[in-house]
Amino acid sequence: MLVWLLKYFPNFFERVAGVSTGDSQVFLTGRIALATLVSFATALIFGPYAIRWLKKRFRERIDSASQKLNELHAGKRDTPTMGGIFIVGAIVVAAVSCGDLMNRYLLQSLVLVIGFGAIGAHDDWIKVSSQKRGLTARDKFAWQWALALVVAVLLFFLQVEKPQGLDLVFPFGKFVLPLGVFFIIWAAFVMVGSSNGVNLTDGLDGLASGCLIFAGFAFAVLTYVSGHRIMAEYLSIAHMTGAGELGVLFGALVGAMLGFLWFNCHPAQVFMGDSGSLPTGALLGYGALVTRQEVLLLIVGGVFVIETLSVILQVGYFKLTGKRILACSPLHNHFVLRGEPETRIVIRFWIGAALLAMVAVASLKIR
Description:
There is one protein chain. By secondary structure, the chain is mainly alpha-helical. The chain has one domain (2-159, 170-294). The chain contains 16 helices and 2 strands. The protein has helices spanning 2-6, 10-19, 28-57, 67-72, 84-98, 104-129, 137-159, 183-201, 207-226, 229-235, 246-264, 274-291, 294-300, 302-321, 331-337, 342-362, and strands at residues 167-169, 176-178. The protein is globular, with a radius of gyration of 20 Å.
């Protein structure tokens, strides 16, 4: 919207374009910052209204597979859930206001966020309106894969035109694996996997939202430098023309999560739900695919990776031996059952997420 409006003032537009150093015609850094502020303000201002509306219709039902965990979290019962609705709303408002809507990366990512948000909202609605625990695993994965494959195909035709656009690039050792048409399956896998990684992490007040702030900031940097020809060349990373515009969306993600965390910090006034965790996780995966930094996604989203692995290992080990590695999975629940205070667990996970984000960004210079 902002870019479109500026084009109605040709003299000013040309002056701004003349000092822009990236592949964007209008101040990209300024728009990223503005998108962060707009999404933060949107979440903060409309959050109380959204929470009151959700409280009347969608309240959390504590019903995990662990009876002891249910007892420990009994105080969270009836807390409004589906807060992801106003997270997605804040992201979309900021992206539409500050982004270049002619950019295909931006449009695809908006489709992804809204689509995964809808899947998550449907899952949340089933949880609060019935005795079920949401969509079945099969149905949930089917919807995620269907949407991810559509976006992956669109991304394939956009990336195929660019050098290294379909290559799996390893950040160390300059090893490159051309994926060709298999990029489509790989891209869908990355988006679905990242989406579910964030979903598994969303179990304590402020845990997922705080970690997403650091991951979102890291990808705002990664998309910006990937879309900047000079910086990409200096850092020896793949240059993807137009990728910088995704920095606006990741700025919006950071702002929305900061605004949401205002209400989600302990004791939470609202929960994110699948309507927030699924789209934000998918967006991280999409950013990694565009910048060809899937390997760095493992570092940036290290907390989400560890949480996911803890579930896989717990289930696999139990099926093989009948014994458990952890008291309860995902990993954060293991610490809850050990008696660690919730705020201590969350803040330590935040510290880990912050350190991992810094390591990932710093690694750009040591190739």
